[in-house]
Amino acid sequence: MAKVARKLPHKASIHLTHIYNAILRLSNFPTQWKFSVIILFPKPNKPTGNPASYFPISLLPLVSKLLEKLILKRIYPIIVENNIIPNSQFGFREKHSTIHQIHRLADAISCSPENKQYTSAVFLDVSQAFYKVWHPGLLYKLKKILPPSFYLLLNSYLKEPFFAVSSGAEIYNISPILAGVSQGVVLSPTLYNIHTADQPIHPDTSVAEYADDKVIYSTHIDPLLTVSTSLQNHLDLFSLWYSQWRIKINETKSINTTLTLTGSKCKEIHQHRVYYTPLGNIISGLKINQTILVSHTSCGALDREGNCVGTTFTNPKGTWHKVIIQAKYSIQLAEEIATANNKENILILPSGSKLKLSDSYGLDQYKGEIVWQIEHQECSIREFDVLYDGEASLVKATTYNSNTESFIVETNHTAISLKKLSLSYACNIPVYKTDNPQLLIIADQNYADSFTPKQITPFSADLLSYLNTKFVYLEFTVKRTTTKLLIINTTI
């Protein structure tokens, strides 16, 4: 057909040009040109009796493909000028290829161990990506970026296409295409890229994609609280987006892997003197301030069964194919004293590194994996009297210009109220100030063991005097939640 088109006489070419100009002017795609014949190519190592074991390829009339090229040539500059397709998408774009995307991903993975960082990646596969594109959703996005004439033309292009499956010499019944953009069609890759161009992004992750294949990865020195949390937050955004635009992920082909030089469990090392190697071997009996040398076989990645399979890709400088490395581990367990700042929630290590105190776990770029336990030191307050330790109601009242929170200890039909004010610190212990200057409320129940109990019940006159015998009647309109209350009296 292509050879015939090139040898058309001059008058035939002129008539064909008039037809194309009329189509562009009227924004109407001819119905006969939207008929495609589907031929099936078997997928390797798949059962031939299952329809899902074949690649469907659409064959359109030659004049239809020429028209699609004309349309693409006119809309693509608009797409490029407005940066519609994200830079992370390398599929079906000029001067982009799968090799370029793999180099980009491999560079991030290769650099992270040098910086003592972890890289965790999620590989997503979209189920029947091209064939499940939701036409109303695609048209909604096209309308926002294209001039009306091109939008109406593509609306006509997507409206009521039909197909017939060809097998050998047989052509089966003609059926309508209700969704999707056919593979083997000129416009389909660009339309798919537009349909997925507004996928959500996350500040702590990166994305690498080629057409419908996507990798979300995060690199950081903290594998638990930063890398894993960032990936999960980004996946949550994707889950909502996929649901909104009727896209389904193939869970059996999607996988998560962490690429690092160590697979240890930090808390097990420090608390139980046990080291877990990446392949599941256990080294026990570690001792403080003694170095143990261990030779071990590690790999780039593990498959679903836990086998060491490495990472496969090719670049001009060499090949990584099922990388298995014989590594020597130097394991040293040490104990040090660090400075804790409760007020700013910072742990300052001897190396100068600063970690989040409340995490109780982190990575020091100089020392490695760190696990700590806070020890409270004596301070200038001689005594803490626990006036009340028990259940209370946290009552939140909101007016047009203020929000008030009070702890309520109920006594029969009345209640004793203690108004919660600003957050403060007593001996580096977080407490809430109250409207009684001598009474504080412990903000974190983990510090309760630091105080000396005093046998005072909420029904005693002693407690009522501390609370200034202030009574309030509870209303059902305020928001109440049951909380654990610890009221202390300070003596300086």
Automatic annotation (TrEMBL):
<keyword id="KW-0695">RNA-directed DNA polymerase</keyword>
<feature type="domain" description="Reverse transcriptase">
    <location>
        <begin position="22"/>
        <end position="283"/>
    </location>
</feature>
<dbReference type="InterPro" id="IPR000477">
    <property type="entry name" value="RT_dom"/>
</dbReference>
<dbReference type="InterPro" id="IPR043502">
    <property type="entry name" value="DNA/RNA_pol_sf"/>
</dbReference>
<keyword id="KW-0808">Transferase</keyword>
<dbReference type="GO" id="GO:0003964">
    <property type="term" value="F:RNA-directed DNA polymerase activity"/>
</dbReference>
<keyword id="KW-0548">Nucleotidyltransferase</keyword>
<dbReference type="Pfam" id="PF24664">
    <property type="entry name" value="Monjiviricetes_fusion"/>
</dbReference>
<protein>
    <submittedName>
        <fullName>Reverse transcriptase domain</fullName>
    </submittedName>
</protein>
